[in-house]
# Entry
Amino acid sequence: MSSRDAVRLSCESPLTALKGIGPVRAERMESAGFHNVGELLHLLPIRYEDRRRVSRLEDVREEGQYTLTGWLEDLRPLRISRRRLTLVRGRLVSGEQSLRVVWFNRPYLSSQVESKVEYVLHGAVRRRADRWELVNPSVEPVERARLAGRVVPIYPSAGLTPAELRRFISSAIDGLDSEQTAEPIPFGLRERHGLPCLGPALEYLHRPPPEADVDALNAHSTAQHRRLAYGEMLCLQLQLALRRRRVLQSRKTHRYDLGPELQDMLESRLPFTLTDAQRRSLDEILRDLDAPYPMMRLLQGDVGCGKTAVAALALAAAAESGLQGALMAPTEILAEQHYDGVRRLLGERYPIVLLTSSAASRSESRRRLESGKVSLAIGTHALIQEQVRFSRLGLVVIDEQHRFGVEQRRRLQLKGDHPDLLVMTATPIPRSLTLTVYGDLSLSVIDELPPGRSAVATRVVPREQREEIYVWLEKELATGASAYIVLPFIDESPAVDAESISGFGRELQIRFERYRPLILHGRASSDERAATMTAFSSGDAKVLLATTLIEVGVDVPDASIMIIESAERFGLAQLHQLRGRVGRGQKRSDCVAIHGELAAEGRQRLDVFAGSSDGFRIAEADLEIRGPGDVLGTLQAGLPAFRVADLVRDRALIEKARVDAREMVESDEAQARRLAFALGATTAGSDFLAGA
Ligand code: ADP
Ligand code: MG
# Structure
């Protein structure tokens, strides 16, 4: 036991307060993300080994983890140079019994182990070639064994070796008087959720008591785990709630004329009737526009559910009120399509300009925008350039929000005086992620598709059987169908087992020559791309060979076939997006995912894809299969790097933290601010909002 009298630590203590950590090490740990004792203690074990029971060699009867004691004999290093691996083999002997032991990459063992010393080993026993073998166990002399008889935490490597981490964390726990450790979360909240205090929770997790439930520890589901996860999420939710409150307290200077006739008038311009979900969302938006504070709303819904149509009506409401509206999209194709689409939906009633990096007459457009002659501007990043000025920007709509950074969204907002903000996402994301990444926004969900859409029949087919698919495609094309064929790469690469436009795509181009196949990828100029899209949507060309450039938003209602080559290369959200390009018209639609060799995860992904067409369900499954990091890798707006909380495992807690945070911000804003700050001192999430 180390002595407790030397240091008195708190979570805010610098790392150098720990024995063995000098300035050099502290710097190394800072670069690994640890700035104080509290942050270090929030690095929890990835798993726990149960070494409470020491077994005898004769007890080894099945595979599993064992703690065993005995003497080590016949240790021999073996070098397997081809695989750059060293092996040490030997035997663990106790009485009459002996067990084979093998270590990987620990060549020093054979010279360190002494024959007269009894050791305690812990590791996995496996059955190999009719014999039991202990694989890569830890080794400690029995006399000095600190770990035997305990539940042993195993740490991830975080700029330090696991042994170093164990040592420093252990001395931090020694120095921290857990009963006296400050607990920032109020008693009422901890009691409501049955959560222990911070100090004891940390001690428990780093030094589990002998009676601890190892399964619960390994599942990260103990009350102590939940206390830490909740703290992180509450910290983030408080910041989001505070930010939201700040906006709701600000006053916008523009007003809308939203008489009761307006909605009827708006809807009467549409060539179709809104679905119930669209109307509900539009109502929510119009109510926000009518409020004295700026709108901050996220409009979510599956591909093709009609988000753009709703956004167009909101823009029309701005234009009707003598205000300007801006719609920003991440690609030129999409911006152009929105430009055509909005004009089609709203007619010629409102002057609209298109602003992209290649749109002609840009300076003319800018002039008309600045003078107020134009009501609506639709474009790409070009919209946020310095020279673009509005005369009375009231409403900002951002399509495919996740493709833009927080900074870009803000730059567009700053072109007006507290304009209303509507953001849209390309694909649904799971609620737990929505509450985390967009937690400061109000949420409107369109959860139904316009009538008359037939479900897209989806097939998943191995590459060996694709000839049948192309024979079928030939027949479909002959009867007038239009098809997309998506390939993951532009160029062929011998190193990658995946199809490309210049490789297999070329074969397809020749094979379907009669249907005038066109090629669409990011390397073509935007003029070429626009010409390609026009030819495909008008039906001049019946086959479009493309990269995932068409993933986002492209809308050609007559296209009814989507073939995805090397489908294992794509994430679930991407596959779903691609499938959403068809099934937009009256025609029955088909999607075929053709795959090469599949790993287990790929199989799982394609099964989910074939089994469901509900974007929200697919998003949840994606989150479970890949984990939040990967799913959100595409969310440039970013996600706080939680140290403990997990968006899959702890999703129920997120809802609670959000409710608690909003309540506290309502009832006592100063307390909420202090709590967010105190929690931010040791948990993640504090950087996340810095730029927001
Ligand atoms: P999203 O932006 O959600 O992907 P869009 O707004 O682009 O969806 O709509 C997809 C297609 O459905 C468009 O062709 C649009 O004109 C059409 N559409 C939208 N709402 C309706 C509706 N209520 N009834 C019929 N068609 C609709
Ligand atoms: Mg869209």
About this structure: The CA atoms of residues 19 and 171 lie 7 Å apart. The mean pLDDT is 87. The radius of gyration is 31 Å. Residues 307-308, 553 surround magnesium ion (ligand 2) (CB under 6 Å).
